[in-house]
Every structure is written in C-alpha cells, then in structure tokens.
Design brief:
437 residues, alpha+beta, Phosphatase 2c, domain 1, 7-stranded antiparallel β-sheet, 5-stranded antiparallel β-sheet, PPM-type-like_dom_sf, PPM-type_phosphatase-like_dom, PP2C, Protein phosphatase 2C domain-containing protein
C-alpha cells in the first residue's frame, strides 16, 4: 500500500489566518511467511512459492541496529493537527512507507550488475517482493469558527474517529489468517466484520466525535463546527462515512476515469439535484460555502444524547485505483467565484462563458488528470496544493491519496457502480459478477 498527504493554509489566508483542516492517517501493514496469497504466490497447487532473493536494500537494512526483523504487524500512524504539525518522534513521515517499499521492490527486481544478469539461466524470472496485507483508517476534517472553535473541532474529529476506527481495521485483517495459510481455531479469532458492521462502526465513531465537539463548545462558550470524511480500508474494500462537504474521490488508471465516492451535504448540491442550477453554476455559486450538515454546534445540546446523520457506503477497490480525500479548499479554490457566477448568468449561461468558468475553477476532470499524469502520489498531492493556490487559494487545502497494487486488476468488462451519485439508468445495467480470479 502506498500513501501520501499534503496540506496548505491557502494563499488567501497566508499570514493572516489559521489552518482549520485536520488530517489523520493510520496504516496497518502485516507481513508473514512468504507473502500474501494474492499476486505473489504460487499457482494454487498448494505448494508455496520460493522466497524472494534478498536484495542489497534488505541486507543493508538488516545491518542497521534500529531495524528489528519481525513477521508480525507494523502500524504507522500520522496525525496532522489543525495547525499542520506532525509529531516528530512517533509518527511516520508522509510517504515514508511508500518510499521504503518502492526502494526495496526496485532493488529486488533490478539485477545488481550486467554480469549478474548474464549469469541468469534462460527463462529465469526475478521473483517479486512479497505483498503485505494492508489495512488503514483515514479521517479528514474541515473546521469552521476560527481560533479555539473550528480548528479544535476538526482536531477532535480526526483524533476521536481515528481512535475508534483503528481497531476496526485491524480486526478486519486479523480475522482472516487463512490468507497466510494459517490455521487457527475460530474460537481465538475476532468476529468477522461485514460491510454493514464497519459502516456502523464509522457512524458510531463520527457520532462520538460530534458529541465531544458539542461538549467542548459548551465548556468553552464557542460555536464549534467541522465537516468530516472518514474511511476504513480492509480486505480490498473501502468503507466510507461523511458529514458535510469534504470529499472522497476514486481515480482508476485502467479506465482513465474519476468518480465521486461521497455526496456533499450542501445547499448547492441540493439545488443541483433538483435541477434549479446547472453544473457550471454549482462551481461558482455565491452560496457554495453553505453546508446543510456538520459535526458540533453551539454547546446547547446534551453532549451525551446529541445525534448527527452520517452517510455511509462501501465500495470495492482494484489495483489501478487511487483514492483521494480532500477538503473543499481544492474544489472551491476560486476567489472570484461570485463575479464568475454573475458573468455566467448575465451571458444567459452561454457555452462560451461556461468554458471560461471551467478554466477558472478546479474541475473533476482536472482532479483526475493530476493523478493520471503524476509520477508519484507525492507529486500528485503537491500538484493539488499548487493548483488550488493558482486558482485562488480561497481556503485551507488538505489532501490524502492512497493505492494498493496488490489488489486484483480492474476487470476488463463491467465493474460495480462506485460513484455516490451515478449518472446512469440503473435499469439498463447488466449484472456484474466479481470473482476472486
């Protein structure tokens, strides 16, 4: 699994504002024996594949006194607070695991010299690195209310939700030891969680964060709000829960397409659904900052009973998928949106003016093209920040990207509907059967 994060205060707020976004990421990587049963194992005849040759990178790592060999599990946690600070001692740097895995894989797959390559027997294939099982939790929140309100709300959201969901992700991995050819009695294993169970866990974790923010608001006498989008990735599926207008996207490299995995709880989204405004107006509408649902409040509710509606869903992922979570600082970066909206309306919504609007804002097509054209996830994340600031830098921007190429490849035929609001006639869709092959 590869991942990266990036975040910025936004050009308009630079020097005179704060970062009210908060981002948390917890990764669980488990390696055992000679790798995952998927892509790097034998042909299914019951015999284990040969262990991969030790690369120079592996040998050097083994000589380091700090590098302890383990066939258990390694957990890397990244929690970026509302102020953009990352604890230096106990947090893995963004993309660090990515770089280490890529370096080891490259070393294993590349001969050390031309002489060594010549010595290989005809038909020999360099073995692949074993693929670990990955699971993870991400939480991204965008606060509102300024100092001691929005930034605290987003911080509470990312920490409380992550704290409650990390065990869920680990449970999902631990309950399937057969994927490492391990035979353990079900009596000593946790209950297997289905999609509905994980969605319930997401809902409960987000409601718990909602209550803690309300408790803080009551104690501090502030109005404290935040959006949140959270995901649990395990066993090839991404389970999502969200409130507000922070989003999750999926970009598939094989099909060169982007779909939105979430649907904004926002006034403009409702108007667009009802056909009151078109897609161009939705990009630049003056009320684009109004959301219809958020965590937190003014503190007048009972923090032990407060509730919030959480939307949840689950989608299957493939090897060519990249998941992007982002605050609205990417989508709503344009500072001249009200003027563009008025010009579009005054031009009687002409196609020429629509093209001008699309060039000025960040569109889904551009979001897709950044992933498809980037050399790495780090490069894509950096480009999103640059693009948002170039288009106006209206607000804080936070992005998270991850992908797992140990998953099965994207089917050449039909794939499950994964968009939150698919623009298709479901009655005309053929049945798609997804197998493990």
């Amino acid at each position: 699994m590869r991942y990266t994060t990036n975040y910025d205060i936004g050009d308009r707020k630079r020097g005179q504002g704060i970062n009210e976004d908060s981002l948390s990421l917890t990764i669980f990587e488990q390696g055992h024996r000679d790798g995952y049963l998927g892509k790097t194992r034998g042909s299914g005849d019951g015999e284990e594949a040969d262990a991969p040759k030790e690369s120079e990178a592996d040998a050097e790592a083994a000589d380091e006194p700090e590098a302890e060999a383990t066939d258990g599990a390694e957990t890397a946690t990244e929690d970026t607070t509302a102020h953009g600070e990352t604890p230096a001692d106990d947090v893995a740097p963004s993309g660090a695991a990515d770089s280490a895995v890529e370096a080891a894989t490259e070393a294993a797959e590349t001969p050390a010299s031309d002489d060594e390559a010549d010595d290989e027997e005809p038909g020999d294939e360099t073995p692949e690195m074993p693929a670990n099982r990955s699971a993870g939790v991400f939480v991204l929140a965008d606060g509102a209310g300024g100092h001691d309100a929005g930034d605290v709300a987003s911080y509470i959201a990312t920490t409380v939700v992550a704290e409650n969901l990390a065990p869920v992700a680990i449970n999902a991995v631990r309950s399937h030891p057969e994927e490492f050819d391990i035979d353990i009695s079900p009596d000593v294993l946790p209950d297997t969680l289905g999609p509905e169970d994980i969605q319930t866990g997401l809902e409960n974790a987000i409601i718990k964060a909602h209550r803690e923010i309300i408790r803080y608001a009551g104690d501090s006498g502030t109005q404290s709000y935040t959006t949140v989008v959270a995901g649990v990735y395990a066993d090839g599926q991404l389970h999502l829960g969200w409130v507000g207008d922070s989003r999750a996207y999926l970009v598939n490299d094989a099909r060169e397409e982007i779909v939105s995995l979430t649907k904004d709880h926002a006034v403009v989204e409702e108007w667009a659904d009802q056909g009151e405004i078109d897609s161009v107006e939705a990009h630049v509408h003056p009320d684009g900052n109004q959301i219809t649902r958020a965590l937190g409040g003014s503190g007048h509710e009972d923090p032990d009973r407060a509730m919030v509606d959480v939307d949840t869903r689950s989608v299957r992922l493939f090897a060519e998928d990249t998941v992007l979570a982002t605050s609205d600082g990417l989508i709503d970066a344009q500072t001249d949106a009200p003027q563009l909206y008025q010009q579009y309306v005054d031009a009687d919504r002409s196609e020429e003016m629509a093209a001008t609007v699309r060039e000025a804002v960040v569109t889904d097509a551009e979001i897709r093209d950044v992933v498809l054209g980037a050399e790495s996830l780090d490069a894509a994340a950096g480009e999103y920040v640059r693009l948002a600031n170039e288009r106006g830098g209206k607000d804080n921007i936070s992005v998270l990207l991850f992908e797992d190429d140990t998953l099965p490849s994207t089917p050449s035929g039909g794939v499950p509907v994964r968009a939150a609001d698919p623009d298709i006639d479901l009655s005309e869709r053929d049945t798609v059967i997804i197998t493990e092959d």
